[in-house]
Amino acid sequence: MSEEQQVDVIVLKNEEGEEISFLVEDEFEFEDKSYLVLYEEDNDEDAYLFIIEEEDEDNLVVKEVTDEDEFNRVSEFYYSE
């Protein structure tokens, strides 16, 4: 009997308000922050790095990491693990 791997999918809206489905590759902590590595559901060649932030007590916000220095530090950490 083969074991099926569960893949988490997250749906985010882009700047134009279009919904895009992403596959969650990994979630990890770095420098007391939570990050996600995501792939578009229909394009698994490009990985995206997102940060998870608390909007308020009950809501989390997922934002793409756009700061180049932060992106480089986090990527270096992730790929060294």
If you had to describe this structure to a student in words, what would you say it looks like?
It holds the Pfam family DUF1292. InterPro entries: UPF0473. The model has no long low-confidence stretch (mean pLDDT 89). The radius of gyration is 14 Å and the shape is globular. A five-stranded antiparallel β-sheet has the order 1-2-3-4-5. It has one helix at 68-80; strands spanning 9-13, 19-30, 33-40, 43-56, 59-64. The longest helix has 13 residues, at 68-80. A hairpin with a 2-residue loop joins strand 2 and strand 3 (33-40). The protein contains one helix and five strands. The protein has one domain (9-80). It is an alpha+beta fold and 81 residues long. Helices cover 16% and strands 56% of the residues.
The number of E-state strands comes to 5
Low-confidence stretches: none
Shape: globular
Strand order of the largest sheet: 1-2-3-4-5
Total domains, how many? 1
Distance between the termini: 31 Å
Order of helices and strands: EEEEEH
**Strand share of the residues?**
over 45%
- Tell me the structural class: alpha+beta
Based on CA atoms alone, the radius of gyration comes out at 14 Å
Helix content: 10-25%
Tally of individual helices: 1
Average pLDDT confidence is 89
Main β-sheet: number of strands, strand sense, barrel status?
5 strands, antiparallel
Task: Give a concise summary.
By secondary structure, the chain is an alpha+beta fold. The protein has one domain (9-80).
What's the structural blueprint in terms of helices and strands?
Elements lengths: L8 E5 L5 E12 L2 E8 L2 E14 L2 E6 L3 H13 L1
Antiparallel strand pairs: 1-2, 2-3, 3-4, 4-5
